[in-house]
Amino acid sequence: MKSSTETLFDEIITTLHQRGSVYGHPFYNHKRIAGLWSAYLDFPITPHQAALCMALVKVSRLTETPDHDDSIKDFIAYGAVYKTVLDAVQDESWDQ
User: Fold this and answer.
1) Would the pTM of this model clear 0.85, i.e. be above it?
2) CB proximity list for 72: less than 8 A, separation 6 or greater
3) 4, 35, 70, 71: most buried by Cβ count inside 10 Å?
């Protein structure tokens, strides 16, 4: 029998795969987000910073409702997205 944490991780992995099929690889998605934010803010934002900022949105929401399952899942997922995007940024073979 799976623990509640294992079930949570399984759900997060499923969500990441589903979102990836809709939005594309996290690197390219967050590269687009970073480009839009950079243009709006008139300040350069990197793809991995965009992912980290998305996680911070979830931190803000969890401050108000600390037991909101969807925000907990999203926060954990954005940590994984951050790592994926950071790895892609550091890998010279990715189109940056």
Assistant:
1) yes
2) 8, 58, 62
3) 71
